[in-house]
Write a structure and sequence with these properties.
about 10% helix; 34 strands; 6-stranded antiparallel beta sheet; mainly beta; 5-stranded antiparallel beta sheet
Amino acid sequence: MKNVVFLFCTIALFAFVSCNDDGPYEDYLVARPIVQDAISFKAEAVDVVDPIPIVSSGKIYAYQDYIFVNDVNLGFHVIDNKNPSAPESIAFIKLEGNFDISIKDDKLFADSYGDLVIFDISDITNITIQSRIVNAIYNNDVWLSNIEYPQADFYEYGDIDYSRDIVIGWEVITERRSVEEYESRYNCDSCLVDSAESFNDSPQPTTGQGGSLARFKIIGDYLYVVDYSNINIFNIADVEDVKVLDDVQVAWDIETIYSQGDILFIGGAQGMYIYGIENPEKPEFISEFRHGTACDPVVVDGDYAYVTLKGGGFCGNTESGLYVINISDLENPELKVIYPMDGPNGLGIKNNTLFICDGDSGLKVYDKTDAPNITLVNTFEDIIAYDVIPLASSLLMVGDRTLYQYEYIDNDIRLLSTFQL
């Protein structure tokens, strides 16, 4: 009898184990995010420190006797330019998640992980943070571009609230997991889609001047900031009480903003969009000029808009070139001529002179007196040209961690100084 009971128990135990056996097991690398709350993280992401070497030079901004050079995603370098022949770096505004700024009446407005941060620069030797408006510019989620995904077999995200938490790193450990579980996660089409989605979820002016790649633009008492699809609008008449107004949706992949009078010209990967701001709190759509997919800054002078399209890489497949567009009828912009370019970035206008930063091909200078027909008058080669600002008496240009300054001489320009960042 005891043998019968023992045999029954053995069979039952074997059946139980078989029903719960997921097959063979192996050691797998499992990655889990290390998170920090957004409030404390953002507080640590802002500071004003002594000058440091630049990592990746981006946009430039001029204000009175100072030049601000963006260090992409890290902040802005402050340069004293009282003597343009010998500029001096005096501070670094650490501002993680930053791409652009604009200044009015000694108040510097900047973005940081979607927040609008306001600095007081009235004492350039003692720059202070005045206020921060959380999630004022774009989506609430904060993604750190310098945090790379570790090599792992499993990514366990848990319950992360990306509007409140920020992934600051990863913990990777070895765990025993079922081979069947691993294969079911990574050997099906739907799983691959889910995985991909989780990874991509004269008198001194009172207002400064940015280049054609700017996403910030101050006009009167209003600050306009373009994110990837909207115009964000702020009433900054009272800097102690900045009003966040309703966004205006434009299109997907918009990149730059430029103005002429009460007209905004928005550059995007798919085209140029024209908006009127007779009511500055609610820009009204007027028209658009569509082109192939490419990176697309725009500047305007009189009846013509000048648009550089940069193709290749992430910018798209459109052939690089300069598009000259007749905007005398704002409701019906008309392409007049295309000039081939190698890899254009920013551009600027000073009277009848058009400056184009053509990437590795250097700075190109054109006479646009007979626009839409333009004539090449000079090329500064052996430099990488990224963005340019034509000022009243000089020209600023940045490229490859170097700030160049040129002075206007009759109908030409001459290199005044080179400042290694």
